[in-house]
Design brief:
Pfam families: Abhydrolase_1. This is Alpha/beta hydrolase. The protein is α/β, with parallel strands linked by helices. It is built from 13 helices and nine strands. It is globular, with a radius of gyration of 21 Å. The termini are far apart. About 5% of the residues have low confidence.
């Protein structure tokens, strides 16, 4: 009888926990799908309140003090809003634009900028329609808006052609979209586990990502720890970076007015084949947003002109946990003499 009661209790607790998780996911989905109207005229836009703006920017600026190389910053005006850009590296070096992942900002590149800025003029951009110091003035409705925004940004920064781009996650999808529309402005691109682009996002990732919209730090930490599992377990330095990312993710959820991001679409076979500029695609062997093997299989079969690399002992955290390897591969690829397969 005692064992039966114990079993029933376990079943009850499991069902209760499952229902609670489902309820919270539905709540998160509601936040995610119903971001509400953005008041672009608010004095503290894109933040919820003046206090939220002060708290987020204080945390942002404290993290920025750890930027490992000398840099300058500027706000660049575009028709989509003011775009915050941090610039590092030699004045006359070739331009290298780094695009961060969704829900983050340009400070995601701290483990990489010191290496990359030795030979390139590195421009780390706060996506104008995401977190950070950029200030949007209109809604991003589709991929074409991101492409147009980047074109305006590149013009304002004085770029003409032979621009290199590296995009991580959502930034990788934006980079691929730009390469499809304006290949003549680019020299080479590197795609680091881009969302969409090659295959659909996994259902588990979608459910976990939606939960971050719930304004409790537990959900931010749970998602980031799952996504960056290799970094969490690789040592104190990587773990500290992940904790900073958790703090920033949670602060962003509390501080910014929610925005509906453009859904990162998967490219057709013809679109992938049309990318003729030199392209390097990297993905960690433990990637969580999709199957890395499925991604590499499709690329190697459909678009063999795109170089691919599987990064060992890394997942979506490849720029952190395997920073030295990733930095080396990017630099080596960019330094190769031009030659389209």
């Amino acid at each position: 009888m005692h064992k039966k009661r114990s079993l029933l209790r376990k079943i009850f607790l499991w069902v209760s926990a499952t229902l609670l998780a489902l309820l919270l996911t539905i709540i998160g989905l509601g936040f995610w799908l119903s971001p509400g109207e953005l008041n672009f005229d608010s004095p503290y836009h894109p933040f919820k309140t003046e206090q939220a703006k002060e708290e987020y920017l204080k945390l942002y600026d404290e993290r920025a003090k750890k930027w490992p190389v000398i840099s300058t910053t500027k706000m660049v005006n575009t028709s989509y809003g003011q775009t915050f850009v941090r610039i590092s590296g030699p004045d006359r070096a070739a331009p290298l634009v780094l695009m961060h992942g969704a829900g983050g900002n340009s400070l995601q590149w701290m483990p990489n900028v010191e290496s990359l800025s030795k030979h390139y003029r590195v421009y780390t951009v706060d996506n104008v329609y995401d977190n950070g110091r950029s200030i949007p003035v209109k809604i991003m409705a589709d991929a074409n808006d991101y492409v147009s925004w980047l074109n305006e940004l590149f013009d304002a920064l004085g770029f003409h052609d032979r621009v290199n781009m590296v995009g991580l996650s959502y930034g990788g999808w934006i980079t691929a979209q730009y390469a499809l529309k304006f290949p003549n402005r680019l020299d080479k691109i590197v795609l680091l586990a881009p969302v969409g682009t090659v295959v659909q996002l996994s259902p588990e990732w979608i459910v976990r990502a939606i939960s971050v919209a719930i304004p409790l730090k537990f959900f931010s930490r749970n998602f980031v720890y799952w996504l960056a599992e290799d970094a969490v377990h690789s040592g104190k330095k990587s773990r500290a970076l992940i904790e900073e990312h958790v703090d920033e993710t949670f602060m962003a959820v509390r501080s910014f007015k929610p925005k509906r991001m453009v859904n990162p679409c998967v490219l057709t076979d013809e679109e992938l084949q049309s990318i003729r500029i030199p392209t390097l695609f990297m993905v960690g062997e433990n990637e969580k947003i999709y199957s890395p093997h499925e991604v590499l299989e499709r690329l190697n079969r459909v678009a063999p002109q795109i170089q691919t690399k599987l990064i060992m002992n890394a997942g979506h955290d490849l720029t952190i946990v395997q920073a030295e390897t990733v930095n080396s591969l990017i630099t080596e690829f960019l330094n190769q003499s031009q030659g389209i397969p």
